[in-house]
Amino acid sequence: MELKVATEIGKCLSNQTRLQIMEWLKKPENNFPPHETLKHFNDGVCVTYIQEKSGLSQSTISTYLTNMEKCGLLISTRHGKWSYLKRNEQLIKEYSEYILK
Amino acid sequence: MELKVATEIGKCLSNQTRLQIMEWLKKPENNFPPHETLKHFNDGVCVTYIQEKSGLSQSTISTYLTNMEKCGLLISTRHGKWSYLKRNEQLIKEYSEYILK
DNA sequence: CAAATATATCTATAATTCTCGATATATAAA
DNA sequence: TTTATATATCGAGAATTATAGATATATTTG
């Protein structure tokens, strides 16, 4: 992994709310209600649920999630009018190996 | 690992120079000259060498290293008038496991 | 003890990030 | 096609971080 990419990932992980979101998404079914339309968590959780649980504004959370997707930490999938976010375990693994010896 | 601690670690890793320092310290002998007084790298590298290699000011690097030690990423050892810094592999492992699934 | 060297801390300004409300866009529902 | 809902983007002010020079402290050396 390149230093610049790793720095961008670090920036996403340098904020308590964003780190908390990463934690919540480890086990979405333990932290969020099942979506009324989509009944599974295969693609993660919709923006609204994450926003409500965080307590921050819609625009702030949307920006967070967009940046987290841009640096690769999250994978976004559209289903109709909803965007679902899930962890990108592959990238997270690469990052954790990068900072490890 | 607690969310707050992990956030502080993330802050340290959210800056290119600081992340670079973490990388340099993986193999100090590849990145720094051996110290004229202390001849080994057992306790890492002195502040001056890190400062010179980084190109930033003494005060900036001193602040960086102090914060990196405070959150546990680095271990500092005094030998006379020099402070030597090395990675805290144990803490780094805990952090990398925390962000992993 | 005085001078030199290494590191830490203080203070201030510049740069970046945080955060929101307003607004735009996309999609679905009526 | 109008309205409602979900998400994204824009613009701005507040808060935090970056960074350096000046200065303080700690330690060694003469």
From TrEMBL, chains A, B:
Q: Which InterPro entries match?
A: ArsR-like_HTH, HTH_ArsR_DNA-bd_dom, HTH_MetalResp_TranReg, WH-like_DNA-bd_sf, WH_DNA-bd_sf
The keyword Protein transport is annotated on this UniProt entry: no
Coiled coil regions, renumbered to chain: none
GO function term, MF aspect, one: DNA binding
Q: What is the lineage of its organism?
A: Bacteria, Pseudomonadati, Bacteroidota, Flavobacteriia, Flavobacteriales
Enumerate the UniProt keywords alphabetically.
DNA-binding, Transcription, Transcription regulation
DNA-binding found in the keyword field: yes
At the top level of its lineage, which domain of life is listed? Bacteria
The entry's protein name is: ArsR family transcriptional regulator
* Gene3D superfamilies, per the entry: Winged helix-like DNA-binding domain superfamily/Winged helix DNA-binding domain
Q: Which residues form the HTH arsR-type domain?
A: 1-101
Q: Which CDD domains match?
A: HTH_ARSR
